[in-house]
């Protein structure tokens, strides 16, 4: 098949992103569609072959000729009938209207009929004369003249039959296994021909009906037969006819062609099975080439065909079709689309920050689809390190570690596309940061325009950069410089369905908001449907044990749907109670008295697994349980006031532990190891320390000697092996001794998140400080001003004395009293890192109608605090002081 590249490369430079194809007016296109196209049609015609001179002479070469070409030598000769090389160009000959004599070569035996007819006789009348002479039915006859099939509606004058001309009679129905398909498509072509000739056409549904019938009869189980069947559509030149109709100056014709092509393209994917649909690619390529020239790259029908082709090549790539020497889709077919789309995206990026429009989703999606097989083909020929070094060598290289240069131009152009789009993206991100700064100052509230496709483009640029040596360094350096805008794109446009591993591996170019957003996308979403929630009814006095029973023994899928929580003998239900449960159960899990976790000496907020946790026979099950609870707390976005130590966090992320990582967990061991490493080598070698490769561990009130390496008791620590000794000691203390506990915690976390790969990605994509903020919340004291700014009033007005008294009383509370009041109000003791603005909704103070001697109440689910209009500040202070006592502030809300 003639490639798409062959038809358009005269307009595109091979080493740069070309200018866009200028859209040609449909009204002007019909006059030259056939003559331009026949040179590069799927059934090739020689370049010296005569071409139609006007739309009236536009006739399609029937594919049945090609079929006969495969079946007999005589028909092959007929298929290739053309003017000889060097002959004078075809032109209108001088006709003497009257009688005409010409010769018709028959199907077999080389016999020839001499036909006499008038110039205004139709081709159909000739078929009838042949039937009289030979007995061959008209329906089984096809006449070929100068390489094209004559249509029955034409006159001999319209066909420009010359006196003494030679015609070839081809019997289609006897030379193909699909006579009905040939008949269908030829009938459709004839119908189109009539519509194009009619001054006031009235298109019917017949064309669409034919197309649906043709698709419906496609063989569905045999790929070879399906490929042969679909070739009928190409060899009959049906795409050319449909596009000619689409190029008609008559609106009715254009609408008919548009509907027909759309139906054919869309229905093919729905009707054909996937292996068969892949054989449809050459037909779509043909439509793309014709529509590109007829209507331009912005035409909606062209875009539909291009997107359909993109989905095919994304699935099948660039590879073989039926027959070992027949490529279904080739690089030459694909790369022009890459060039075209890169040009379009580049232009749109150049204008996106100055208008509300940017690169379209369709263009970006198609670009990515076409790039997938292109990258794969290039990588298949790349050296073992997977990198292409530019400039390319001029000579062809072979052998292991070298790559083939058969796609030299494509490789160069791909690199040019990368540099061009990266430069445009850098400019866009820089302008975006200026706009974001203005937005923070309140100078503009508009969303950054045209940026919804930026993240997808950047992802594809990173993928291209992976193919070229040094390109990724350029890409990620640019992302580091544009960290603010890149992080904004992630938070605003990164979706759960997308693959974000390319970003997670480079978390240094993102901020906390972006990393948290990506981490939350890995976790399941909390469902709102009540019937899907996992219900728990727990006795406060048995909080840990009953919570363990409900969570540890539940199916993970059930827990991912969400939780519904009630405490026994309490009326309160809803999200507020769930937040309260999370806080208290996590406090219990990490309570050192339960021997599951140890807190760090230097930071009592931080915990890591206790090597002696085996005092509890169910300790490993409890670690699995705690992994589930932590994952659920993160999933529900609840701050629990607990954070992990670095040695625990790194192991969950699959990272190694170093000396610096144990500083908080065991400062004594850290300092001792530090001294050993920094000590004078001569002193160490004198065995002053008296150390061997052992560790003395105390477990269950007994001391145990553990060898850190084979024959560790007799291996003395020297200046040469002291680094190894420190590494082994740290590994045993903080990895080996708690390996089972970490594994079970990770498994519990995995139960909620879905897979061990996602579990590792979750922790790898975060810094320890990020996880601190997500689990613990804000480290800063509660700001009364921030609290007040995020509170509304119902029944009260901000100017009421009760509201003024309230904030003055809160302002004079201790930090702990404010935490208790906040917990009473919302079931939240630790605010998000953004403060009150990070809560799911604003807080509200309601005026109640209760008597003044009643204490305030709360509806924690809705962040509501209710109290009556107390008559004095002292009375209000007394009521608030009572509820801010730690033993009172818990579980005081109603719902």
Describe this structure in words.
With 895 residues, this protein is of the alpha/beta class. Among the domains are: 33-85 and 95-176, Roll (Ubiquitin-like (UB roll)); 178-319, no CATH class; 530-657 and 740-775, Hect, E3 ligase catalytic domain fold; 659-734, Hect, E3 ligase catalytic domain, CATH 3.30.2160; 784-889, Hect, E3 ligase catalytic domain (Hect, E3 ligase catalytic fold), CATH 3.30.2410.10. It contains 39 helices and 18 strands. The strands form 6 sheets. It has a 5-stranded mixed beta sheet. Helix 4 (63-71) runs antiparallel to helix 5, helix 15 (300-316) runs parallel beside helix 17 (361-380) and helix 27 (619-635) packs parallel to helix 32. The longest helix has 33 residues, at 408-440.
């Amino acid at each position: 098949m003639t490639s798409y590249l062959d038809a358009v490369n005269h307009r595109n430079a091979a080493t740069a992103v070309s200018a866009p194809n200028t859209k040609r007016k449909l009204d002007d296109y019909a006059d030259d569609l056939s003559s331009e196209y026949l040179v590069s049609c799927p059934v090739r015609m020689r370049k010296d072959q005569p071409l139609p001179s006007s739309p009236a002479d536009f006739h399609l070469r029937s594919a049945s000729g090609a079929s006969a070409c495969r079946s007999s030598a005589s028909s092959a000769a007929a298929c290739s009938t053309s003017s000889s090389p060097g002959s004078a160009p075809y032109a209108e000959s001088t006709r003497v209207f009257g009688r005409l004599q010409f010769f018709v070569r028959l199907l077999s035996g080389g016999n020839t009929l001499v036909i006499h007819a008038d110039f205004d006789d139709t081709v159909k009348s000739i078929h009838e004369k042949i039937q009289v002479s030979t007995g061959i039915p008209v329906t089984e006859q096809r006449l070929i003249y100068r390489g094209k099939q004559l249509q029955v509606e034409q006159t001999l004058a319209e066909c420009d039959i010359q006196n003494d001309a030679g015609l070839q009679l081809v019997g289609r129905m006897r030379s193909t296994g699909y006579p009905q398909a040939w008949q269908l498509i030829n009938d459709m072509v004839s119908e189109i021909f009539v519509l194009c000739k009619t001054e006031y056409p009235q298109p019917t549904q017949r064309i669409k009906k034919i197309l649906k019938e043709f698709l419906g009869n496609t063989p569905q189980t045999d790929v070879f037969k399906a490929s042969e069947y679909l070739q009928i559509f190409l060899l009959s030149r049906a795409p050319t006819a449909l596009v000619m109709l689409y190029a008609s100056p008559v609106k009715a014709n254009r609408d008919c062609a548009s509907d027909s092509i759309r139906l054919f393209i869309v229905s093919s994917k729905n009707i054909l099975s996937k292996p068969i649909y892949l054989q449809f690619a050459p037909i779509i390529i043909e439509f793309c080439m014709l529509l590109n020239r007829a209507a331009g790259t912005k035409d909606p029908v062209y875009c539909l065909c291009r997107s359909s082709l993109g989905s095919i090549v994304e699935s099948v790539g660039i590879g073989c079709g039926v027959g070992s020497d027949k490529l279904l889709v080739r690089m030459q077919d694909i790369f022009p689309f890459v060039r075209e789309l890169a040009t379009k995206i580049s232009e749109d990026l150049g204008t996106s920050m100055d208008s509300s429009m940017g690169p379209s989703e369709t263009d970006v999606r198609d670009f990515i689809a076409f790039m997938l097989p292109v990258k794969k083909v290039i990588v298949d020929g790349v050296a073992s390190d997977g990198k292409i070094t530019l400039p390319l060598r001029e000579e062809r290289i072979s052998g292991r570690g070298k790559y083939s240069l058969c796609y030299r131009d494509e490789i160069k152009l791909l690199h040019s596309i990368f540099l061009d789009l990266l430069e445009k993206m850098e400019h866009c991100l820089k302008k975006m940061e200026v706009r974001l700064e203005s937005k923070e100052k309140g100078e503009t509230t508009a969303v950054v325009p045209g940026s919804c496709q930026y993240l997808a483009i950047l992802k594809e640029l990173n993928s291209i950069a992976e193919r070229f040596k040094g390109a990724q360094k350029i890409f990620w350096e640019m992302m580091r410089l544009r960290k603010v805008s890149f992080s904004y794109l992630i938070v605003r446009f990164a979706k759960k369905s997308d693959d974000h591993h390319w970003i997670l591996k480079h978390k240094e170019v993102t901020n906390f908001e972006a990393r948290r957003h990506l981490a939350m996308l890995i976790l399941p979403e909390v469902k709102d449907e009540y019937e899907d929630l996992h219900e728990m009814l727990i006795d406060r006095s048995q909080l840990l044990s009953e919570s363990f029973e409900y969570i540890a023994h539940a199916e993970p899928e059930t827990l991912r749907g969400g939780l519904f929580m009630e405490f026994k003998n309490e009326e309160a239900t809803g999200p507020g109670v769930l937040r309260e449960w999370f806080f208290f159960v996590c406090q219990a899990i990490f309570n050192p008295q339960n021997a599951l976790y140890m807190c760090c000496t230097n930071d009592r907020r931080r915990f890591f697994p206790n090597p002696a946790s085996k005092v509890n026979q169910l300790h490993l099950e409890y670690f699995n349980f705690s992994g589930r609870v932590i994952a659920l707390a993160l999933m529900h976005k609840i701050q629990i006031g607990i954070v992990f130590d670095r040695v625990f966090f790194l192991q969950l992320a699959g990272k190694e532990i170093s000396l610096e990582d144990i500083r908080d967990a065991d400062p004594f061991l850290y300092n001792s190891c530090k001294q050993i490493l920094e000590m004078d080598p001569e002193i160490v070698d004198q065995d002053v320390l008296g150390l061997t490769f052992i560790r003395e561990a105390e477990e269950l009130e007994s001391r145990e000697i553990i060898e850190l390496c084979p024959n560790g008791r007799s291996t003395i620590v020297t200046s040469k092996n002291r680094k190894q000794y420190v590494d082994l000691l740290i590994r045993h203390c903080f990895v080996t001794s708690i390996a089972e506990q970490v594994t079970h915690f990770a498994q519990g976390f995995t139960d909620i998140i879905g897979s061990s790969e996602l579990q590792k990605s979750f922790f790898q994509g975060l810094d320890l400080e990020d996880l601190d903020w997500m689990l613990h919340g804000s480290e800063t004291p509660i700001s009364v001003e921030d609290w007040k700014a995020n509170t509304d009033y119902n029944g009260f007005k901000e100017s009421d004395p009760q509201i003024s008294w309230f904030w003055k009383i809160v302002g004079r509370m201790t930090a702990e009293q404010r935490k208790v009041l906040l917990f009473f109000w919302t079931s939240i003791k630790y605010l998000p890192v953004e403060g009150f603005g990070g809560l799911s909704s604003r807080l509200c103070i309601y005026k109640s109608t209760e008597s003044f001697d009643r204490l305030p109440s709360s509806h924690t689910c809705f962040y509501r605090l209710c109290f009556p209009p107390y008559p004095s500040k002292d009375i209000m202070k007394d009521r608030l002081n009572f509820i801010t006592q730690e033993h009172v502030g818990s579980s005081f809300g109603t719902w």
